[in-house]
UniProtKB/TrEMBL annotation:
Chief site of localization: cytoplasm
Protein family according to the UniProt entry: Belongs to the MAP65/ASE1 family.
Keyword Phosphoprotein: yes
MF term (GO), any: microtubule binding
A GO CC term attached to the entry: spindle
Comp. bias regions, Polar residues: 429-438, 444-462
UniProt KW keywords: Coiled coil, Cytoplasm, Microtubule, Nucleus, Phosphoprotein
PANTHER family membership: 65-KDA MICROTUBULE-ASSOCIATED PROTEIN 6, PROTEIN REGULATOR OF CYTOKINESIS 1 PRC1-RELATED
UniProt name for this protein: 65-kDa microtubule-associated protein 6
Lineage: Eukaryota, Viridiplantae, Streptophyta, Embryophyta, Tracheophyta
Subcellular location: Cytoplasm; Nucleus
Length: 521
């Protein structure tokens, strides 16, 4: 009765004296009844305790049941109803807590399962990392619903959501790149169709993306591979466009005789594009800006370039006039002779204008340089330097021509004096020989007779013998820059002709004059 918490014993009491056997017979049923109550109470306590221990086991951090048998043995000394009610209240609280935790666990598991499906991640290994009981399908198998399990599930969900957000951002950026490349490359609809579902899903909010595998790494890799393929195709096409625009830039610079920027030279741009060190779009933009600058500078140089072309044309006419003057049959009545005569007259007039053309060109070039604070370059060389050297060499040539004329006058005076003193009796044979040789030199440089020899026009009859102009270097890139080639030391001013006249007027008498002296003597 003390164990069961019973305080009163209801037994029939006879007023008379009852023997011990009768008292024993009356007590034995009561005792048996109490024993049955105790056994039943023990069973109730055991069931409640087992349920409590099971729930505590599920709620425990380490799933350690502890010494449940010893706890049950201790409880057999107190099987009162009050104790039973206390256990029952404890069991109901644990069941409520378990139910709440189980609901959260199932909710978390379902969310993990959904996120794993969207991300294309295996669900089993993911929850096994938290607790193996979470992936058990058996009904009899209880799931661990401890605080660590709940925290692990919450942390896993947070990580999966972060991964989902990261993949969505990555896929949206990749899809944006794909759309740009599709538009740029004018891709067919067949290539776009394989990503149409992804495109329609990515416009939804994060919580609205629930399709299985839509954010899988496999699909991301596929999209990135497509972007890489299109990017390579774009690079190849941009490379062709860059080369085309570079050729256009070189053509503009060549027409304007400007040195193009070497930073975008084809051999350098090819290596930079292939190595990936530079974006072809940026390189193309750089070349486009260079084309605009080249066009602007070409427009600013147009007036000077036109005058340079006129100067070159005048020099060409001067060279033609030199060749024309060398032709002994230029006055013969042949076909086209009158046309050449007209051209020669015009060429002579044009040649007289060359000095003023050069002077005007120098003045305009100086004005251009002062306005822009930079030198006027023609194929890499400064135009002023070329013009100054041309003008200097022309002045030197004019000086040589003047000296030649003075020398010729002196020779005429000397011959006239000799004729006045000794007389002139040339034989017909000698006269004929002299007449045949009036238009050229003998190989030894001496003349025949007393007639004044005609110098070779190839050296002194031309305004520009070996005088280098821009046309002299046509086909070369830096003929204006090579000032050594424009040096006056390369000019041929007819030194062989002058030596001929020196021999005529020298101290040694010619054989013809010696014969005349002997005859007269």
């Amino acid at each position: 009765m003390a164990t069961l918490g019973e305080h009163k014993l209801y037994m029939k009491k006879d007023k008379g004296i009852v023997s011990l056997k009768e008292q024993l017979a009356a007590v034995v049923p009561v005792l048996e009844n109490l024993k049955c109550k105790k056994e039943e109470r023990i069973k109730q306590f055991s069931d409640i305790r087992s349920q409590i221990e099971k729930i505590r086991f599920e709620l425990s951090e380490y799933n350690d049941q502890g010494d449940s048998e010893s706890s049950l043995a201790e409880d057999q000394h107190d099987l009162s109803t009050r104790k039973l009610n206390s256990y029952q209240a404890q069991l109901r609280a644990l069941q409520k807590d378990k139910s709440e935790r189980l609901r959260k666990v199932l909710e978390y598991i379902n969310e993990v399962h959904s996120l794993c499906g969207v991300l294309g991640i295996d669900f089993g290994p993911t929850v096994n990392e938290i607790h193996p009981s979470l992936h058990q399908n058996g009904v009899e198998q209880s799931r661990n619903i401890s605080n660590s399990t709940l925290d692990g599930l919450a942390s896993t969900i947070s990580k999966l959501k972060a991964e989902r957000k990261s993949r969505i951002q990555k896929m949206r950026a990749t899809m944006e790149s794909l759309c740009q490349l599709w538009k740029l490359m004018d891709s067919p609809e067949e290539e776009k169709r394989q990503f149409s579902k992804v495109m329609s899903i990515l416009i939804l909010p994060e919580e609205g993306i629930t399709s299985s595998g839509v954010l899988s790494q496999e699909l991301i890799d596929k999209m990135e591979a497509e972007v890489e393929r299109l990017a390579k195709l774009k690079t190849s096409r941009l490379k062709d466009i860059v080369m085309k625009r570079r050729r256009e830039l070189e053509e503009i610079c060549q027409n304007a005789h400007i040195e193009p920027d070497v930073s975008t030279a084809p051999e350098q741009t090819d290596a930079l594009i292939d190595s990936g060190l530079i974006d072809p779009s940026a390189l193309l933009a750089n070349i486009e800006s260079q084309i605009l600058k080249a066009k602007e500078e070409s427009l600013s140089r147009k007036d000077i370039m036109d005058r340079i072309n006129k100067w070159i044309a005048a020099c060409d006419e001067e060279a033609w006039l030199e060749e024309y003057n060398q032709d002994p049959k230029r006055y013969s009545a042949g076909r086209g002779a009158h046309i050449n005569l007209k051209r020669a007259e015009k060429a002579r007039i044009l040649v007289t204008k060359i000095p003023s053309m050069v002077e005007n060109l120098i003045n305009r070039t100086f004005a251009w340089e002062n306005a822009r604070s930079k030198p006027f370059l023609y194929d890499g060389g400064r135009l002023i330097s070329v013009l100054e050297e041309y003008r200097l060499s022309r002045q030197q040539k004019e000086e040589e021509k003047r000296r030649y004329r003075d020398q010729k006058k002196l020779e005429s005076i000397l011959l006239a004096e000799k004729e006045a003193i000794f007389g002139s009796k040339p034989t017909p044979k000698r006269t004929s020989s002299l007449n045949r040789k009036t238009n050229g030199y003998r190989p030894n440089g001496n003349t025949n007779g007393l007639m004044t020899p005609t110098p070779r026009r190839s050296s002194l009859g031309s305004a520009t013998p070996e005088l280098l102009t821009p046309r002299s270097y046509s086909g070369h890139n830096r003929y204006f820059g090579d000032f050594r080639r424009l040096s006056t030391s390369h000019l041929n001013f007819g030194d062989d002709s002058l030596s001929t006249f020196t021999s005529i007027s020298g101290s040694e008498p010619e054989p013809f004059l010696m014969d005349e002296l002997h005859t007269d003597g």
